[in-house]
Design goal:
single chain, two-stranded antiparallel sheet, little secondary structure, elongated, binds zinc ion, 88 residues
Length: 88
């Protein structure tokens, strides 16, 4: 569907009123300076003290359910879980 021309929708508005239009082109330096903080860093992974599996720092280990040596979650095998993906 083609939008009707702005002159039809709002005849009193100037043509550039429909959207913001930059007055000047953004320079490469300004663009790159703005993007200087946009880099994505990979999450820090550490070895679990209990099961020695790799997991994210400051998170409960999803493999064994422990954090700082304490058991936080009860880890259930998905194949044996009630209502799990393999449940009848
Ligand atoms: Zn673990």
């Amino acid at each position: 569907m083609v939008d009707p021309p702005l002159a039809v929708i709002a005849p009193s508005l100037p043509l550039h009123a429909a959207m913001a239009v930059p007055k000047k082109r953004t320079s490469k330096q300004r663009r790159n300076t703005r993007r200087a903080h946009d880099a994505v860093t990979p999450p820090t992974l550490i070895d679990c003290k209990r099961c020695h599996d790799v997991h994210r720092q400051h998170r409960v280990c999803p493999t064994c359910g422990t954090y700082a040596g304490r058991e936080i979650l009860e880890v259930v095998d998905p194949a044996e879980a009630v209502g799990g993906p393999l449940a009848p």
